[in-house]
Amino acid sequence: MSAHDQMRAMLDQLMGTGRNGETSRYQVQFNDPKVCKSFLLYCCPHDILASTRMDIGECPKIHDNALRADFEKAQQKFDHYYDVDATEHLQAFISDCDRRTEAARKRLLETQEELTAEVAEKANAVHELAEKIGHTLAKAEELGAQGLVDESLKLMGEIEDLRKKKSEAEDTYRNSMPVSSYQQQKLRVCDVCSAYLGIHDNDRRLADHFGGKLHLGFIKIREKLSELEKNYEERHEARRKFDEQERYKRDDKRSHRSRSGDRNERHRRSRSRSRHSRHRSRSRSRSRTHKHDRRDRDRRRY
């Protein structure tokens, strides 16, 4: 995106579609069904996961920063309940991801050598420590990039302690099974983003995973969904009542227009009958007058 396009997008986001008297390039308003409600609330998975291994392509609905600005201004005056739509959208997306995660776990059970309960527990201990190291290392690097050196060094000290615990757990796991089996890569599925993680993955690979855009994107989506679900039932009920009231108002308006139309029709028919009656009365009057004139002419003739 060029600097000009970036500046235009920033102005759209700040000022909406009314900037310089312009209208949306899509010729729609923010409340159009074709506009993505999740985008308006900054939580559309199509945007969050763009350019990752799980990029799901362009959203089928409209994304426009100017429409988002219009929505934010309108929301200050009137509640549109778009969080209900966004909750249902994210619920469907996360449910689909969780189904894929469970399917991946089942495939691993079918393809990997089955471990006894005791050995599986030891392998999980290694996995959990490795993941904790990856999380902590990614956080330490993030703090270092922000210039928080002391906090970063503190986390690096925690990582050294975790590495010692992991080394001990690996020895326990190694001693509980044959060497040939230990050398095989034992995989597990990440609960957050459904990526595969190996028991022999090094710290760098794990840090790249837990600090990567894909994993962090899924964390953002799941946290947003958790936030929205707190008040979902209450908000859903409030929107249902609001929609019901709006429906009653529309029905009343249609009923009023219908009654008004009936009154107008009755009035029109009444006026028509009145005109017809006056016309008949004038016709009878002219007929009687014509008859009297004829009789007068006949008398004068004789």
TrEMBL record:
Bias type Basic and acidic residues, positions: 235-265
Source lineage: Eukaryota, Metazoa, Ecdysozoa, Arthropoda, Hexapoda
GO CC term, one of those recorded: U1 snRNP
Domain of life: Eukaryota
Residue ranges that the Swiss-Prot or TrEMBL entry lists as coiled coil: 105-172
PANTHER family reported for this sequence: RNA-BINDING PROTEIN LUC7-RELATED (PTHR12375)
Keyword Coiled coil attached: yes
Region (Disordered): 235-302
Listed Basic residues bias regions: 266-302
A GO BP annotation: mRNA splice site recognition
Swiss-Prot/TrEMBL keywords: Coiled coil
Keyword Metal-binding part of the UniProt annotation: no
Protein name according to UniProt: Putative RNA-binding protein Luc7-like 2
Protein family per UniProt: Belongs to the Luc7 family.
Gene Ontology molecular function terms on file: mRNA binding
